[in-house]
Amino acid sequence: MVAIAEKIHGSRSRFQFVFDRPRVLGAAFLTPAILYILLLVGLPFLLAVYYALSAYTIYNPSYHFVGLRNFVEVVESDIFRRTLLNTFIFTIGSQILGLILGKFGALLVLRPFPGRKIVRALIILPWAVPIALATVAWEWMFDSLYSVINWTLIALGLMSRADAPNWLGEPGLAMLCVIIVNAWRFFPFAIVIFLAGITAVPQDVLDAATVDGAGFWRRNYQIIVPIIAPIVVVGLIFGTVFTFTDLSIVYLLTNGGPVNATPVLGNLGFQIGILSGDVAHGAAVSLFMFPVLFLLVIVMLRFIRRREI
Amino acid sequence: MPRIVNTAIKEGSFYATVAFFVVLAAFPFYWMLITAFKTNADLYDVTNIPFWFNAPPTLEHFRYLFGQTLFARWLLNSLIVGVCVVGITLATAIPAGYALTRLTGRNGEALGIGIFLTYLVPPTLLFLPLSRIITWLGLENSMWSLVLVYPTFTIPFCTWLLMGFFKTVPREVEEAAIVDGCSLFGSFVKMVLPLSLPAILTIVIFTFTLTLQEFVYALTFISASAQKPITLGVATDLVRGDIYYWGELMAGALIASVPVAIAYNLFLDRFIAGITGGAVK
What we know:
The complex is a heterodimer of chains A (309) and B (281). Chain A contains 15 helices and no strands. With 309 residues, chain A is mostly helical. Chain A has 2 domains: 1-46, no CATH class; 78-308, MetI-like (MetI-like fold, Orthogonal Bundle), CATH 1.10.3720.10. Chain B has a two-stranded antiparallel sheet with strand order 1-2. Chain B starts with a helix and ends in a 6-residue tail after the last helix. The mean pLDDT of chain B is 88. Chains A and B meet through α1, α2, α4, α5 and α6 of A and α1, α4, α5, α6 and α8 of B.
């Protein structure tokens, strides 16, 4: 009896050591999260690099080291260069469109008016609803025969049924559609980010500047812009990263077609690495995202640090 | 008089712009809604006005969805995946967020930013190696692969969100508990956790919606219909051959969208505070 009681007492004090030391408890609290991320983000990333430098396919899983050959082969292929260009057009186009819509939208929602809450709830929908599902709805709106957009244009007398466009069937139009859907998906996010920035500007500072004789432009560029810039930049980087690396909109809307007009890096990596099983080349294609991501993260870090001071 | 005209024009153009934005944002969902309830004869007739019912509305698409497809199974799969991922996320992100704000000193902030940045590592960079890892673990074509992988983005996001929250809990609360004889761990469990319930509820909701929104990993790991989550099932499995059954597709998309839309609107402000890192008061 005594021995057991002592043992319990002993183990209790051992836990006490964990429970009372901030550093020990902190390490114990952090370990699961850090392990999860190291094992399922860090390790896969290193594996991706290794695959890209090897001749690994799912049919012939050899780790035979081939150096940069995969990268060279990828760069030399026309489809890859086309895809890289597409990715930049897709990202830049939809971010600019989304930001313009976001800026205007934010200015609208800022002003109180009856029904503002409902309007806000409706405007946020494109960003809230799973994008794969919304994309299917857009696909139906772009349908070659029953497109509601074409129906409206015809009903308004702007075109005849004979020359109604096949939105997803023509290369230029298909790219435009993909960009529109992505901008549509992101503009509510941009609105929200702009709002967060604008409401972060303290009114008393603005008033003080006005009293001191600062005009509209001066207030705008020396007070408002510097305050909202970090928030907007962080938001913009989020948008850019998720657009640049996305594959779902293109996959569902056009699946890269027509005639390779729309695939982005994510699609090509998926096509080569998963569907064709050529893991090595697929990984090489995916890794071409890394320099852009790296740059964006550096910019973002600067802004996060600056904000904390 | 010209002044009144001026205001009228200003107000008119303001509300016209608001209307433009609402239509732009919400029309695809209205289109989902109306398509889901239309009869096929009504849908596939270019002479009909598409914006309203030309024939009485019908529930046939919903009946088909629940009777002839795996739709109910997909809903269940999503629920299982969502609940498991929420569990894993809570168990790892709450202690991590607390440790990074209170227990690790100045290094905690930098480490926290490091963890948050992993949220930016995209699925399309990791899906190839992860799909090999999933195969080695024997989880290919199983929804449990998603339970394993989804926490890689929910843990960083929720840890960051919680760090912002734990900073607002006054230290005095914990100090008082420790003076009363609690251990550091005890004060966390008895004082900090109950105070954090609103934040915990927020991350439960967001983790769940993030799992519903995810598409890339699900597409990569799962091709067996019966294992698909709802988003993947609706987007890829309701197209038979080359024929799209738009009524069923839109009905499925509608059912899966509604809960996420409601959850987002309720918790939007906290989500923004999370992304902008608590810079906004």
